[in-house]
Amino acid sequence: MIELKDVTTGFQSPEARWARFGPYYAMFPLDFAFEVVSKYSKRGDFIIDPFAGRCSSVYAGGVLGRHSLGIEINPVGWLYGTVKLSPADKECVIERLYQIYSRRNFYNRSVSKMPIFYRMCYSNEVLKFLLAARSLLKWQTDSVDATLMSIILVYLHGKLGEGLSNQMRMTKSMGMEYSVRWWLENGFKSAPEINPVEFIKKKIEWRYEKGKPCIFDSEIVFGDSTIELRKIVERSKETGIKFSLLFTSPPYCSLTDYYADQWLRLWLLGGPERPKAIGEKHKGRFVSKEDYYNLLDSVFGSCSKIMDNESTIYVRTDRREFTFESTMGVLKKHFPEYRYKLVDNPFKRRTQTELHGNSSKEGGEIDIILSKKRGNMI
């Protein structure tokens, strides 16, 4: 049986090396995800996360021998999660890398027509490679293509020398005009000359150095939880499968637009060339308090129909009044027979709320733990 420290510290096991795969906002700390899954479920249990993000909760469940199911609406998070649960064979990924690189010169004309941002962000060679990957990789349907695309996404931008780009932040894409102005003002007028196939191959070799993770029966569904959960409820009626742990962190009301913040990676996945907020329901920033409440109501309402008679609901949320009160109210509505306790989590490092600009005095996050197990609460 794998020891938690072998996953949550260092990079010496395949499970540890893949656990941190994919820079992403609003992700659970790795040790926290493993601690919750370990404490509130047992091997062979079914666990679910309807707001999976980059899928740390599902990954922890899979490593620890739980049947784990997540739902994620953002393709970046879904891709990271899907790949780290089941990466393709290294040799196939490297072969595909060379195939994509061999097609780069078909995109010479396309490069010259792109906005100045891209031509300052990436060298000509890198940009041609990215355009080939964007056009040719079938990341939604092919495991090899998904694995290669996800690795490119990880290193799409970051500190100079650590990614394919000019100097940028790793976890959040900056606006085009802001980036161009910043590069000009700070002496980064041209992108670094990088051979993308050599760069990405080294990253692949490192990621696979310890092998592939051993994951037990785990899956990430790409879609809207309000829709996908209805299907899961129907399957639960047919199969009788119930979940013993619901472990999640919903988006925080009005703090960020994950699609706008991930626009550059979303561009590589086929999205628009210029950053913009997404108008589709449940994909952008929740400005409407009514829409936010309705999302929580729908998701936790559906989840209440698939939970075991003795189960735990573990929800990490923002402690600002509206977000917390809405989450608490919805949970009490749909899990009225559960006992609950609250655990404060003041900021120890940069977390979702702080990163996204919460300047209120209500700092930190709060965990809501509901239990219907016999005996003592926790």
From TrEMBL:
EC number: 2.1.1.113
Molecular function terms from GO: DNA binding; site-specific DNA-methyltransferase (cytosine-N4-specific) activity
Domain of life, per lineage: Bacteria
UniProt-listed InterPro entries: MeTrfase_CN4_CS, SAM-dependent_MTases_sf
Catalytic activity, as annotated: a 2'-deoxycytidine in DNA + S-adenosyl-L-methionine = an N(4)-methyl-2'-deoxycytidine in DNA + S-adenosyl-L-homocysteine + H(+)
Top-rank EC class of the record's enzyme: transferase
Biological-process GO terms, alphabetical: DNA restriction-modification system; methylation
Stored Gene3D superfamilies: Vaccinia Virus protein VP39
UniProt keyword terms in alphabetical order: Methyltransferase, Restriction system, S-adenosyl-L-methionine, Transferase
Family: Belongs to the N(4)/N(6)-methyltransferase family. N(4) subfamily.
UniProt name for this protein: site-specific DNA-methyltransferase (cytosine-N(4)-specific)
Originating species: Dinghuibacter silviterrae
